[in-house]
Amino acid sequence: MISVRQPARLWELARQLRLGWRSTASLFGSYYFGRRAALRKFFPDTVVIDLPEWGKIPLRTNPHDHVLLARTFVRQDYRLEASEVRRILDLGANIGMATVYLSRLFPRAEIACVEPSPYNVPLLKRAVALNGIRARVFEAAVGAESGTVDLYIAAHPECNSVYPVEGSLKVTPVPMIAVPQIMSEMGWDTIDDLKIDIEGAEKDVLRRNNSWLRNVRVITGESHVNAGYPYADLQADLHAFGFDLETVIPETADYGASFRGARQG
């Protein structure tokens, strides 16, 4: 059964994003046809909506992507007050919404996008191409060291993880790459903006082989309490490298915190 509130929410999202009628129709179609497996054959697997202020955004036909759209472009979870941002590392790039957002916020920046899901990467690459973004896509999970790791593909497309996911649809091996290797391949000695949303792998990335954090200026991201790495621990680990974090959305018993911050000194 479809909630009578949902059409109003989608209309409001379309209004906030200033969508034209074609993009509004695509937003509604991707949500409603994505709710029922039997209906999906009557609608494209992906659509592209045009955000006048931000760019062209590929959406999957599912009942989830509109939430990511609202968080990225309406709530602006990755907004930063920073200048001279030239190097952005997007860990957990998903289908590229944050990449598009950050590229518009910092148009002179070069972006390294890291995404392990073979289902997300084609849309990420499409978002980069549609918007002419100066970015390189690394088709890999990020870890404390390079190698190979099992990726658990979740029913919810934002929840794929290198940690076991309850009700995962499948497990697939993917390459794993460490941040120092990414920096080396990009020719970077510093990272101006680190965006991190990697479904629990933060604990490994931020605690091991982590001296590269001294070369990061600002950070935005999400913690994942269900991975055994509460926000207080993440704060302490980043504080050790001089980061002063602002909590954007507090942690709850079920969901991690959203945060942003800068390294002092």
Task: Describe this protein's structure.
With 265 residues, the chain is an alpha/beta fold. The chain folds into two domains: 1-75, no CATH class; 80-263, Vaccinia Virus protein VP39 (Rossmann fold), CATH 3.40.50.150. The chain has helices at 5-16, 21-34, 65-73, 97-105, 121-130, 179-186, 202-207, 231-239; strands at 46-51, 55-60, 87-91, 110-114, 135-138, 141-143, 147-153, 170-178, 191-196, 216-222, 243-249, 258-263. The strands form three sheets. Strands 5-4-3-9-10-12-11 form a seven-stranded mixed sheet, with helices on both faces. Helix 1 (5-16) runs antiparallel to helix 2. The longest helix has 14 residues, at 21-34.
List keywords for this structure.
seven-stranded mixed sheet, three-stranded mixed sheet, alpha/beta, 29% helix, 265 residues, 2 domains, Rossmann fold, 27% strand, 8 helices, single chain
